[in-house]
């Protein structure tokens, strides 16, 4: 870490501040995609086992968030978007975040192994390591491809859920992983287009900082086009069907149109409307991912009635 220091303690840390260290918004996405991966798996867990699996995956995600906030506190303090986080604001000390992250890491991995299987626990351990060490400590500050490679950390939860139920990795788990992995770059690059000044101040080499917004717009379009085949391919596996296919076609058509609109934009127009198009694309990208996994849930829920699947 480039600058670990004791932040001025305000003395008003509460339970909510420690919850915030776990990045609850990110955790909610992790829980949802892991739950879908577990639910659509061909092997059903006992409800108590399923609950335990999701709980410990969530704790693992929270551990990653706490470790990330501990490491990134020096850049969070200079970024408008993150300056009020618990550590840079002084409500929580870095050592507390580190201790919480390490404790939750150990608990989540060991308990997931006991509740489900060793492979699922190993994947969770690797995910925590990848996000905290490979992405946060190395990639984020060293390469404009940080979010491309680092996106793998956020793509593992549905695979972990699947493996928790089945004990194995199959094409369905891989495609769910690839859906999130390929979605992550255009999602975050859209954010970077209108938050570029934050990354510049913090010295984070996002693509917008190192190569400019024009190159970033090109990359958003290319990655969105590359994402579509993986999103649609899932429809033709054991967890897909006509419901998922219809939803995926609609969502990908809108997402492609949005990426095309971003690609066509020039900076003069973008600055004139304060990056309204880019912000709209960023918000829709969240709906895009949620919609695909919700469609998988719907497809599986319809199977008992003879309506889901092919």
TrEMBL record:
Q: Name one GO cellular component term.
A: plasma membrane
Q: Which PROSITE patterns match?
A: UBIA
Topology relative to the membrane, per the entry? Answer: Multi-pass membrane protein
CDD domains recorded: PT_UbiA_Cox10 (cd13957)
An example Gene Ontology biological process: heme O biosynthetic process
Protein keywords: Cell membrane, Heme biosynthesis, Membrane, Transferase, Transmembrane, Transmembrane helix
Q: Which InterPro entries match?
A: Protohaem_IX_farnesylTrfase, UbiA_prenyltransferase, UbiA_prenylTrfase_CS, UbiA_sf
Question: Pfam families, from UniProt?
Answer: UbiA
Compartmental location: Cell membrane
Main subcellular localisation: membrane
Database matches in PANTHER family: 4-HYDROXYBENZOATE SOLANESYLTRANSFERASE, PROTOHEME IX FARNESYLTRANSFERASE, MITOCHONDRIAL
Also noted in the record is: Carbon 2 of the heme B porphyrin ring is defined according to the Fischer nomenclature.
What NCBIfam families does the database record attribute to this sequence? cyoE_ctaB, PRK04375.1-2
Record-stated family:
Belongs to the UbiA prenyltransferase family. Protoheme IX farnesyltransferase subfamily.
Function, please?
Answer: Converts heme B (protoheme IX) to heme O by substitution of the vinyl group on carbon 2 of heme B porphyrin ring with a hydroxyethyl farnesyl side group.
The protein, known as: Protoheme IX farnesyltransferase
What lineage, starting at the top, does this entry show? Bacteria, Pseudomonadati, Pseudomonadota, Alphaproteobacteria, Rhodobacterales
């Amino acid at each position: 870490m480039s600058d670990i220091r004791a932040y001025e303690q305000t003395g008003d840390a509460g339970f909510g501040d420690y919850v915030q260290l776990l990045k609850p918004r990110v955790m909610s996405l992790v829980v949802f995609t892991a739950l879908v991966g577990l639910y659509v798996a061909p092997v059903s867990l006992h409800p108590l086992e399923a609950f335990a699996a999701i709980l410990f995956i969530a704790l693992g995600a929270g551990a990653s968030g706490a470790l990330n906030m501990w490491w990134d506190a020096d850049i969070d303090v200079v970024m408008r978007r993150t300056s009020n986080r618990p550590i840079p604001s002084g409500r929580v000390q870095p050592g507390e975040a580190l201790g919480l992250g390490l404790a939750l890491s150990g608990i989540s991995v060991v308990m997931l192994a006991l509740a489900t299987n060793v492979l699922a626990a190993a994947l969770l351990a690797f995910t925590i390591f990848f996000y905290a060490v490979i992405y946060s400590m190395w990639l984020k500050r060293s390469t404009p491809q940080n979010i491309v490679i680092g996106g793998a950390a956020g793509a593992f939860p549905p695979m972990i859920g699947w493996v928790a139920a089945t004990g194995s990795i199959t094409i369905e788990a891989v495609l769910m992983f690839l859906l999130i992995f390929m979605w992550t770059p255009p999602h975050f690059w859209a954010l970077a287009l209108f938050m570029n000044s934050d990354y510049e101040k913090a010295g984070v080499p996002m693509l917008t900082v190192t190569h400019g917004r024009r190159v970033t717009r090109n990359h958003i379009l290319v990655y969105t086009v590359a994402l579509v085949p993986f999103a649609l391919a899932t429809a033709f596996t054991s967890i897909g069907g006509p419901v998922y296919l219809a939803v995926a076609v609609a969502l990908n058509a809108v997402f492609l149109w949005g990426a095309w609109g971003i690609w066509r934009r020039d900076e003069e127009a973008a600055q004139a409307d304060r990056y309204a198009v880019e912000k709209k694309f960023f918000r829709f990208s969240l709906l895009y991912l949620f919609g695909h996994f919700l469609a998988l849930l719907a497809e599986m829920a319809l199977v008992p009635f003879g309506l889901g699947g092919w």
